[in-house]
UniProtKB/TrEMBL annotation:
GO terms for molecular function: DNA binding. This is Helix-turn-helix protein. PROSITE patterns: HTH_CROC1. InterPro entries: Cro/C1-type_HTH (IPR001387), Lambda_DNA-bd_dom_sf (IPR010982). SMART domains: HTH_XRE. It comes from the Bacteria. It holds the Pfam family HTH_31. Coiled coil: none annotated. Residues 12-67 form the HTH cro/C1-type domain.
Length: 71
């Protein structure tokens, strides 16, 4: 499975764990609920706004393209 094939939620979860963050910690930094983070990571909620992807990338300290699976 290439990085392009990995759903964005799974990439968010991987980077969150790499940054030693819990779902609650990520949610707090984003000013969102833990449930929202859980839904994103499970793919139950889509990330369809680039501004939200940018915010996630900023908190996770990665480029937005990394979360989008782009080289």
């Amino acid at each position: 499975m290439t990085n392009d094939d990995v759903p964005i939620g799974r990439r968010v979860a991987r980077w969150r764990v790499r940054r030693s963050m819990t779902q609650q910690m990520l949610a707090d930094r984003l000013r969102r609920s833990k449930s929202w983070v859980d839904k994103i990571e499970r793919g139950a909620r889509t990330l369809d706004r680039y501004s939200v992807i940018q915010e996630l990338a900023h908190v996770l300290r990665v480029d937005p393209e990394v979360l989008l699976g782009q080289p």
